[in-house]
Write a structure and sequence with these properties.
83% of the residues lie in helices and 0% in strands. By secondary structure, the protein is mainly alpha-helical. The longest helix has 48 residues, at 10-57. It has 4 helices and no strands. It has one domain (11-135).
Length: 139
């Protein structure tokens, strides 16, 4: 079944693939800009509330891990913006690429770490309240 009516060359397929890759990249970067625009104000607001409560009433030991998690999430949000700047505005500046990599890997390592610390702390508070009260920092 040789259909010779269609005369496609391999360059047509490459052009189609390049177009699809460009569309996928643009969609990904639009998602990153949306992530930055929505996440940054929310994270700054959450960080402001947590820090204003800690300033007025003293920093509680249970607030340390969530504050650090807010900071890591804010770094990831900034990394999204830096990634878009690198690919769209300054494509040959390797400093933006390295800063983006560093922020990305910080968020990849620190997010699970702080979430695990929060889970362990809350588990200790519920399942082992005597040990939690014993080892909790005193005011």
């Amino acid at each position: 079944m040789n259909d010779s009516s269609e005369n496609h060359t391999s360059l047509d397929y490459i052009d189609d693939c390049m177009y699809q890759a460009n569309v996928a990249t643009m969609i990904y970067q639009c998602i990153q800009v949306l992530c930055f625009l929505l996440a940054t104000p929310a994270l700054v607001w959450c960080l402001w509330i947590s820090l204003s409560e800690s300033i007025s009433g003293g920093l509680k030991p249970t607030q340390i891990f969530p504050i650090n998690l807010f900071i890591v999430e804010l770094l990831f949000s900034i990394q999204c913006l830096i990634d878009v700047i690198y690919y769209r505005i300054l494509p040959r500046n390797t400093m933006f690429l390295w800063v983006s990599y560093v922020l990305y890997y910080i968020s990849r390592v620190c997010r699970p770490l702080f979430q695990t610390c929060i889970c362990v702390e809350r588990y200790m508070a519920v399942a082992q309240p005597v040990a939690f009260i014993k080892y909790r920092l005193k005011r």
